[in-house]
Write a structure and sequence with these properties.
CATH superfamily of the largest domain: Type I PLP-dependent aspartate aminotransferase-like (Major domain)
Oligomer: single chain
CATH topology of the largest domain: Aspartate Aminotransferase, domain 2
Distance between the termini: 7 Å
Strand order of the largest sheet: 4-10-9-8-7-5-6
Number of helices: 16
Helix content: 40-55%
């Protein structure tokens, strides 16, 4: 059952309560490999569901537009100070509702419509808000996009530099949503300095790895850092902007009143809890475990003939091109879901297929590491992935059901925060 218990919800709205319980069980019973998901602690869940959701708090600590902020100011200040300490930054804003609004605040703070901005192309692993054509950032700004080399699947900084010198962007974004390799923040910073651009590091996927010392930090290289607070950081669904002191005022003004009204105080508190957890020595072990699991899983998949974009991984994320397996990403992802293995279909670089029916799948190891799985489990997981994809292609639902049962049996030995077996 869901933990913490939900007796009041069960009494007042049993239909929703039943769905909450069903989702908790689903999360418990599946190997969750979606790279942007995780399990938060019971403490984060409690903060998220607290009475702090009742309070409206437009403005910042000490400068609010509503009275009764004596406690909320302390909560937000604590979250800010913890963010500054964990990441070693001069300034932090914990109010953005999610990653996309956080990135939009960067544009609002430092660019005007029509300005040239530069980011990684979505099909290469970038994010919609880094200037992709269907996003407001691609419509409102003159967006130039860099990608990866076809032969390596990696960013070529010489090509990035040539593009930057030709286009002279005002902002350069590095980071993205499907990048399995270490981001060279120092290299990007050198390019940004040369063209007098502001470097923005979007570390939404790797924030927990940075906090835990398992990935190089952008601090000292990027003037602005944007991140979500879930994913590898293992917090609630929220976001933060961090920066040097020179950009603090502009960013704060862009978040409020530029884009948002009152912050979500229950989320702010949960962010503070997650940052407190990230400051513990055990979190460094967790971050290292994420990477160790990803590397072990990548090696096991390679041994089974899977084609991994860039040939492997340095972080939590693996991107698989299934072209060589004779199956597309979408049917593979759906077969895996039925087999108790949850991931997402995903475009791969230079993908000839359409985005809603792409050639690849994306997976990450943050959630399974939270559950306690180790590199010793990864060969079996790779076997299940391989067999489930084959079974899906052959329409062998009995084989898929067998794998799902084996997955459930394994996971009973690995507790899930937010759920207790009854």
């Amino acid at each position: 059952m869901h933990e913490p218990a939900i007796p009041h919800l069960t009494q007042s709205d049993p239909e929703i309560a039943e769905l909450v319980q069903a989702e908790a069980k689903r999360q418990h019973d599946k190997i969750r490999l979606i790279a942007s998901e995780n399990y938060v602690s019971a403490a984060v869940l409690e903060a998220t569901g607290s009475v702090l959701t009742n309070k409206y708090s437009e403005g910042y600590a000490g400068k609010r537009y509503y009275e009764g902020q004596q406690v909320i100011d302390q909560v937000e200040t604590l979250a800010i100070e913890r963010a500054k300490a964990v990441f070693g930054v001069e300034h932090a804003n914990v109010q953005p509702y999610s990653g996309s609004p956080a990135n939009l605040a960067v544009y609002m703070a430092l660019a005007s419509p029509g300005d040239t901005i530069m980011g990684m192309a979505l099909p290469a692993g970038g994010h919609l808000t880094h200037g992709w054509s269907v996003s407001a950032t691609g419509k409102w700004f003159n967006s130039v996009q860099y990608g990866v080399r076809k032969d390596t699947g990696r960013v070529d900084l010489d090509e990035v530099r040539e593009l930057a010198l030709a286009e002279r962007p005002k902002l350069i974004f590095c980071g993205g949503t499907a990048i399995p390799r270490t981001i060279d923040f120092e290299g990007f910073a050198a390019i940004a300095r040369e063209v007098e651009a502001v470097l923005v590091a979007d570390i939404a996927h790797i924030a927990g790895l940075v906090a835990g010392g398992a990935h190089p930090s952008p601090v000292g290289h990027a003037e602005i850092i944007s991140t979500t607070t879930h994913k590898t950081l293992r917090g609630p669904r929220g976001a933060m902007l961090m920066s040097d002191a020179a950009h603090a005022k502009a960013l704060d003004k862009a978040v409020f009143p530029g884009l948002q009204g009152g912050p979500h105080n229950h989320t702010t508190a949960a962010i503070a809890v997650a940052l407190h957890e990230a400051a513990q020595p055990s979190f460094r072990d967790y971050a290292a475990g994420i990477v160790a699991n990803a590397k072990a899983l990548a090696e096991a998949l390679l041994e089974r003939g899977f084609d991994l974009v860039s040939g492997g991984t340095d972080n939590h994320l693996i991107l698989i091109d299934l072209t060589g397996k004779g199956v597309a990403g979408k049917p593979a992802a759906k077969a895996l879901d039925r087999a108790g293995i949850e991931l997402n279909y995903n475009t791969v670089p230079f993908d000839p297929r359409k985005p809603f029916d792409p050639s690849g799948v994306r997976l990450g190891t943050a959630a399974i590491t939270t559950r306690g799985l180790t590199p010793s489990h990864m060969p079996k997981l790779a076997e299940w992935i391989d067999l489930a994809i084959q079974a899906g292609a052959a329409e062998d639902e009995q084989a898929i059901d067998r794998i799902a049962a084996e997955v459930r049996e394994l996971l009973t030995a690995y507790p899930m925060p937010g759920y207790t077996l009854t």
